[in-house]
Known about the structure:
- The chain has 4 helices and 28 strands.
- By secondary structure, the chain is α/β, with parallel strands linked by helices.
- Helix 2 packs antiparallel against helix 3.
- It is elongated, with a radius of gyration of 20 Å.
- Strands 1-4-7-10-13-16-19-22-25-27-28 form an 11-stranded mixed beta sheet, with helices on one face.
Amino acid sequence: MVMLHPTALIHPNAKLASNVEVGAYSIIGEHVEIGKNTHIGPHVVIGGHTSIGQHNRIFQFCSLGEIPQDKKYAGEPTRLEIGDNNTIREFCTFNIGTSQDAGVTRVGNNNWIMAYVHLAHDCQIGSHTIFANNASLAGHVKIADYAILGGFSIVHQFCQIGMHAIIGMGSVLLQDVPPYVTAAGNPAAPHGINSEGLKRRGFSSTAVMAIKRAYKTLYKSGLMLEQAKVVIEEQAAEYPDLNVLVDFLGRSQRGFIR
């Protein structure tokens, strides 16, 4: 059973699964698909080629699937894809992708996204992330699983934030943030590893110590970057949790915060 408020405007071609709720004065466009047990609050606008998975909760005044804030966009049928079990709070804006990239903006599963968060075109968001109020991403940004962005943090286009990284409130990210790193400031700089977050997620004390040692190799040893990469690769042979750091350093294109 679909539960629609009588003031909601649903295009007849929109696809709503069972037990979807749509609140008062919300607007659902022609090319929208919404999975079962998803709740859409009042005054929400969902447009574009947008697919939303199951068990999401989307609060009032969100705008999802609108065209990119990109002058190059010329009406291509690009997409927004949102997974399952996400909480998206008030006044969030997620744009569809562009043909200059993969053509899709993606949000994974089990994300906690607070009020006024902006996800620009072609952003790729993993799962189990937390975005505090007013965090904003420019286009083409990639956020890995379990990353946390503090309130009013801003991420420059094409930047990447690695798994389990945490970004302090009001930070400005102009370069990549490696996995496990705590970053803060304008421009953001590294401030150790996210040790408390790692413990909460079940990392052993041995693993945390190995990650801390790799951080010191990267930032405190005085080694040139290529030398540090070799040492961290050797450490990863003994501690597999470091493989994500090795992979990240190998594909970073903007360089990472120093």
